[in-house]
Every structure is written in structure tokens, then in C-alpha cells.
Write a structure and sequence with these properties.
By secondary structure, the chain is mainly α. It contains six helices and no strands. Helix 1 runs antiparallel to helix 2, helix 2 packs across helix 4 and helix 4 packs antiparallel against helix 5. The radius of gyration is 18 Å and the shape is globular. InterPro entries: Cell_shape_determining_MreD. Pfam families: MreD (PF04093). Its main location: membrane. Keywords: Cell membrane, Cell shape, Membrane, Transmembrane, Transmembrane helix.
């Protein structure tokens, strides 16, 4: 192989390594913007794509998403969702730290156990939102919609997990 082709191959390889390292953060930002800005005004019953991707990338590529991205996305979620500022950043960062702690266990589990753990964490996240809404005396918040959003998020998660799995396999 001549040196020019080797140089081109090195640049392509570096590009894909860079893209693989920013893919989790980029997917979190893009899906948050799509779900909060474009889909939320249409219907309050949309899945929480941010939380689904947070869970997936927290297990499969934990070093690729900095805490600052989670904090900024959480503030974005709070400002558009009507929660007190700091609710979602706290939930996102606490979930991330829990996932980092339990990553070794979850990474080796089969899909159904992975999904079950996700369901448990989504219910905990929903409970935390209810507690914050209760203590803030936000009487206008409909808890039925929150419960349905939790169910829809759990039901949608396998499609997102499989899509992320297929994408991450392309880069390995």
C-alpha cells in the first residue's frame, strides 16, 4: 500500500473514531430537541427518548457522555416541561451515576433483564417527578399523563435499544 492511501485510511479511521465518541452525546441532544420541541406540542404522550438513550449509552458507552451534557439537557427538559429548574438534571445525573455503578452487571444481562431494569428505573424516575410536582403544589400537572408517558417510554425502549445496538455495531 502506498503512503498516500495509508494516510487516507488513517484519516477515515480517525473520523469514525471521533464520530463514535460523539455519537452518544449527539444522539441525546438530537432526540431531546426532536421530542421536546417538535413532538411535545403535538401530544403529551410521547416517550422520553432522552431517558431511553441515557440508559442505553450509560451501559454501552459510559465515557462518551459528559455530565455537563446531562445537566444542560436536564435544564432544557425542565424549561420546556414546566418543572422546577434542576429537577431533570438531578434525575439525569443520579441515573447516570447509578448506571456507572451497575454497568458491569447490566452489560452482561440478556435483553429482557436489561429491559426490566430499564422499566424499574423509568418508574423510579416517574415517581421522583410526582414527588417534585407534589411538593411544588403544581395542581395543574396531570399525573395520568405522566403515568401513560412512563408506560409508552417502556414500550418504545426496545425499538430504540435495537436501533442503537445496530448503529454501535457499525462502528466496531
Amino acid at each position: 500500500m502506498n503512503p498516500i492511501n495509508m494516510l487516507k485510511a488513517a484519516h477515515v479511521s480517525n473520523f469514525w473514531r471521533l464520530f463514535e465518541s460523539i455519537l452518544p452525546s449527539l444522539s441525546l441532544v438530537i432526540m431531546s430537541i426532536i421530542s421536546l420541541v417538535f413532538l411535545a406540542p403535538l401530544s403529551p404522550l410521547i416517550p422520553d427518548f432522552t431517558y431511553i438513550l441515557l440508559f442505553y449509552w450509560g451501559i454501552h458507552m459510559p465515557g462518551a457522555v459528559p455530565l455537563s451534557i446531562l445537566f444542560i439537557l436536564g435544564l432544557f427538559q425542565d424549561s420546556l416541561g414546566g418543572f422546577y429548574l434542576g429537577t431533570h438534571p438531578l434525575i439525569n445525573i443520579a441515573t447516570w451515576l447509578l448506571l456507572l455503578n451497575e454497568r458491569r452487571y447490566l452489560y452482561s444481562q440478556n435483553f429482557y433483564q436489561f429491559w426490566a431494569m430499564f422499566a424499574v428505573l423509568v418508574f423510579i424516575q416517574g415517581f421522583l417527578k410526582i414527588v417534585v410536582a407534589y411538593f411544588s403544589q403544581n395542581a395543574s400537572y396531570d399525573f395520568t399523563i405522566l403515568f401513560l408517558q412512563v408506560i409508552i417510554t417502556i414500550a418504545t425502549a426496545p425499538l430504540v435499544f435495537l436501533s442503537c445496538n445496530a448503529i454501535s455495531r457499525k462502528f466496531k
